[in-house]
Each structure stands twice: as C-alpha cells, then as structure tokens.
Amino acid sequence: MYQFIQDWVNNNHAMVYFIYGQVFFVGGLLIIVQSRRSSRLQLAQSLPWLAGFFILHGFNEWGDLFIPIQGLTFATPLVTLLKVGQLILLGGSFACLMMFGVGLLRPVGRYIWWLRWLPMAIFALWLAGPFWFGLISPLPLPTWENLANIIGRYTMGFTGAIISAYSLARYSENTPILASMPKIRRHLRIAAVALALYALFGGLIVPPASFFPANLINTTTFSQVFFIPVLFFRSLSALLLIVAMVRGLEILELETDQVIEHMEQNQVVASERERIGRDLHDGALQHVYAAGLQAQAIRKHFHGQRGIELDGLIETLNSAIAELRSFLAVMRPAETNADLKNALQIVIEASSHAADIHIIFLPAQDILLPPEKVTHIAAVVREALSNVARHANATRVEISYTIENGKLQLKIQDNGVGLPRLIDAGYGLRNMRDRARLLGGELNLGAPLGKGTCIYLNLPLEGNPKDD
Fold this sequence. Notes:
Layout: H1 2-11, H2 13-34, H3 42-71, H4 76-104, H5 112-115, H6 118-136, H7 141-174, H8 182-204, H9 219-226, H10 230-248, H11 250-299, H12 304-331, E1 338-339, H13 340-354, E2 358-363, E3 368-369, H14 371-392, E4 396-404, E5 407-414, H15 427-438, E6 442-446, E7 454-460
Parallel strand pairs: 2-4
Antiparallel strand pairs: 1-3, 4-5, 5-7, 6-7
Helix pairs in contact: 2-3, 2-10, 3-4, 4-6, 4-7, 6-7, 7-8, 8-10, 11-12, 13-14, 14-15
C-alpha cells in the first residue's frame, strides 16, 4: 500500500506540488480581499502578515516543482541561486506567520515592546546562522539546503504556528464584539486548531536528517506509518485554516454594520433631541416667559399680601425659565470635530477597490474639522476619483493637502489624458464647485506640465460652511 501511494506521488509529482502551492497562494489572496485596514479590530491589523505567510509559502512550495525543471537547462550557479531564493521564501513565510501571532498578542501590555521584534530577530538569526554559514561552508548543496530547511521549520515554522494558534484562540475568547457572535467565534477556534495542526505537520515533520528529532520524526517515517505523504496533511490543515479564517472574517462586515447602525442611531437620537429642544424653545419656554411678563405687569397694580404672592409667582416662573434653558442647553447637540485624514483614507480605500488605479495619499498633518466640512471635502475627493476612473484613463493619482495661512489647500493630480480643450461642466464638476462655494472656498482645474489633470481646492479653516 505504501509503495503504491509513493509511486503515485512520484508519478504525479508536478500536480501534487502545484496543487499544494496553489492552496497557499489562493488562501493568501482570499485573506487580502477579506482584510480591511480601516477596521479597529486587532485581527484585521494582523491579517496582512497571515496573507504574507500564505503567499510566500505558496511560492516556496512551487519552487519544488519549477526549480528541478529549470535545472535541466539552467547552469548550476543559477540553480543554486534559485534554491537560495526558495529558502529565503520559506524563512520569510514562517517569519510572517510569527508576526501574525505576535500581532494578536498585542493586548498583553508592557511585554509587547520585545515581543513585536521577536519574529524578525529569529528570522535574522536564521539568516545569519544556518542559512549564511551553511551557504559559505564546504557542505554539499543538498546537505546545506536540508539543514537550513529543518532549522527554519523548528525555530520559526513550529513556533510561529503555535503562537498564532494560541493568539487566535485567546482572541476569540477575549474580544468583546465576539460575545454575541458564537458562529464567528467557532470559526476562529477552528482556525486556531488548523494552525496547531500545521505546527505539527509543517513544523515538526521535517525532511530526514542525522540528528534528533529529525532522525526519528520526519517525512519518510511519517509516510511509512500513515501511507500518505505529509504534504497531504499540510494541505488539509492549510485548507481548513483558509476556510475557517474566511468565514471568521465576516466579523469585519459585522463590525462595519454595527458602526453604521450606531451612527444611524446617533443621528436619529440627535435629530429627535434637536426637535424636542426646538419645540420646547418655541412652545413651552415662550409661554412660560409670556406668563412671567404678564405676572410682572399685574404686580405693578397690587401691594401688600397680594403683591407678595405675585412676587412668589414671578420667582417660580423665573426658576422654571432657568430650568428650561438649562435643559435646552443639554439637549443641544454637542459640536464635535471629525478627522479629515481618516475620512479621506476611507474614501481612497473604497475607490482603490473599485478601480484599478494606484492612489497615493500624502496628508501634511492631522486636522480636525467640523463634520459638515469633512463631509463636503470627502465628497469632492470621491467625485474627483470617480471622474478619473471614468474619463482620465489614468494609472496613478496623488492626493495631498497642506495648511498655510489659515487655509486648507487640497490637490488631486492624475497622470491621465488631461483636460479637453472645451470643458463641459457636467453635474459632477458643478457639484464639486457648489461644495467648494458652500465651504467658502474655490475649486480650480489645471494641467501641470501639460500632463494629466490637477484639481485644486482652497478653503478657509475658520467659520462653518454656508447654508444652502
């Protein structure tokens, strides 16, 4: 049975390694698509490292397929260089896996200052140790390659997978937003189990070697015991990890839904508070104030006991007016500022996903503005990027802003076909200029050096937008 399976693997070597590498590569792409930089969750901020592990590891495994093919025509030094690159991909993928796990441990507190550098330190030691010294030593190439592979799997592959498994399991238990999401929490736990399985199959089951434990626990002995190559189990654990993570990353969509719902609820509450305050001001407060004026007018015609009683009535009405005014002050919506940089970053990320354009964002500094201003500016940038995607035939857009002499100067420049000789001010351009006018500023178009289009938005930072 073992010999039959081994013969089948050897006869289908190319297909086995291609599918194995493809599992990792596609998994990395799926995680990149699912990830979101604007999320506040620690999981989302660590996902690029997990995607890096999958993609780099996929290229490494494809090396076992393509390097032998290239060796039939390439010179020996070039083949050696390809094997060196393959090993660097292997070590780099494991370092990314460790960074993912350490990133999820960030809430541990004061110990994070050294934990964050641990994966890169181990990777550097591996490069300086078994990788470099083995490369310059007189060891035969297969021996050096095998040694660096084994030590990399022991020190980074196994350690990184275990840390990531623990971190993900801990994250699923200690993240408040998951308390009401048992299904997503279950998927993250399954992903943690998949990482633990990969720690076993990818970190402990290594190529055969003459030292312990590689002389006892290795790919050859594993295949003899279980009749199936360890690549099969590595692929299954990776596939399980990918499916569980993709399902678990629905938490990002739910987070967005919760944020939007919270914003909508706040908007409804603010609108209702403003309506109630307006009704009280225009209704009850005016009636009480009028009653106070009438009482003061009547007080002039009474003296003695009646006068004292009217004085008490006037004092009561004045107290009621003071309480209503203090209540209206509480009901008035608080004037809060919004972060322009974050608002533009969200618009840019959405536009980047929708169009194949490289967008460079160069904010001069963080700036807080009234929400109305931020809304208008973000709408101008969104409309400008939409025009670039539809009409400019551009591949690159640079967005920047500076603050000089109390004015915000925003510039949106692309490398597209430029402006036509006769500009038709359509709805989009008119809308942008209307928003600039509402902000008390101006919007101009230009073509610097005759290439592409540049939109300039200049507006004062003092004051609020004009009313429609």
